[in-house]
Description:
Blueprint: H1 11-14, H2 32-47, H3 49-62, E1 66-71, H4 80-92, H5 102-116, E2 118-126, E3 130-136, E4 143-146, E5 152-158, E6 161-164, E7 170-174, H6 192-212, E8 216-221, H7 223-233, H8 243-262, E9 276-281, H9 290-304, H10 320-355, E10 361-366, H11 374-393, H12 399-407, E11 440-441, E12 444-445, E13 449-450, E14 454-455, H13 461-490
Antiparallel strand pairs: 1-10, 2-3, 2-7, 4-5, 5-6, 8-9, 11-14, 12-13
Amino acid sequence: MPELRLQAGRPTRNAGLDTTSGISSLVPARMGRYRNLMELVRQIRDYNADASKAISNVLRLANSGWEIQVTKLDGETPDPEGQALVDALVEEGVAREYGGGLNVLINMLLLTAATQGALAMEIEIGEPIEVYDFVVVNPWSIDFRRDEMGHWVPGIQHLGQFNPLSPLQFRYIPLDPEPGEPRGRSPFWAALDVVFFQMEVLRDLKAAAHFAGYPRVDISVAFEAVLKVVQDTRPDLLQPDKADDLRSFLDGYLSDISGMVDDLEPDDAFIHYDSVESTYTVPSGKTIDIRELVETIDAQIVSGLKQLPVLLGRNDAATTTHATVQWQVFVQELKAFQRVVSRMLEWALGMALRVWGRQGLVQVTFEELRTSDRVQDATAESIETRTKLTQVAAGFITADEAAQELVGHDAVAAMGYWIESGDLIDGVSPSEPEDGQENAVELRVGRSHRREVEDISRLPWWQQALYQEAETTCWNTYRAQLRAAWRRMGE
């Protein structure tokens, strides 16, 4: 295996990729079908309203904010020096040709992933050896060959020669590839047929609207009146051998009226002889139900572009449950894009650390997209908390066990409830509050052991409310237990 070394410049250009001569020079002739499909996807992405909106949704929602963490090779110990180097690089040292900044780079990666189903990026090395830029490469410009081990190797086909690209400076990541096929699959391929059908229907609808969608001026000429004019002014035209002359006269009469109407401005008055009558004709009759046809096309568009109807401007009615499930499925689609982008950035930033002579791991995470309603989440959490308080009061679990399940650590304070003086629980009488602690509670967990006394007036209002509710629940539980014990003793 040949030795891999960093090379100055951009690997694709060094391999012969010409990025200034148009698409035809980027893709080998044998990849014509792939090139044509990518060109069609690019066209609908930029010129079709629904596809353009779908791309915009992916770019705006998938780039939800990010965080980069640099650690030692153990993946846990932070690396402050490496973190500082990476932060400086992503702030201005990436996507220099497009204004710089990691957000620009992420949007370009998302664009190629959503359009072409693949990501391709290279690290541009400056002289002396340093990381100059991260450059996104059009995935359709990359060719593949198998090496002697049978593995796919990305490269550039130039002048009949295949030039492999170094894995140190170039990486290609496919999205949902076919087995045995190195290239990814564009998520928009399924939408090509229905998008072009939609465009044809819209053109036909436009022509139909121009032809029959508006009232038309209907001008009729009274033939008897015209014939009387001919009898009075040109009786010679009524001779049997003058039929052609009579036809020419009548055609000229109609042509004069037509020319006058064609020259009218929208606000001009139509002045004519009483032999001419002007009215409006409104289209009538049964035609195809265009609404049902458009609804069918819309359903296919939504499925082909893998979007939600509301995100494409279709306000289809849906229950809250269905809408929540649809949004959760769509978020998973966005996370698929985020995962491949994270892999690409982690590789590139990790290689940058190696160029700087540092060993470390880079982790890129995107902010979570909310998939549930905050009110519903808060309600569910409140119910879970009350349930745990009841279980603690009943002696089923300890406070630490409840805290572990709710917040992931042991309880940070004692927990219990005020029990009215004079009542006995398991033969133990509760102690009286100390002076100055009228709101004090004797903290009691389960049925056996005690905790120290705390002043609940110092707690936040919501914790006080929980204590008061739990106090009632706990006391009712203990009272029921006491009655059951008395019944058993009486038996």
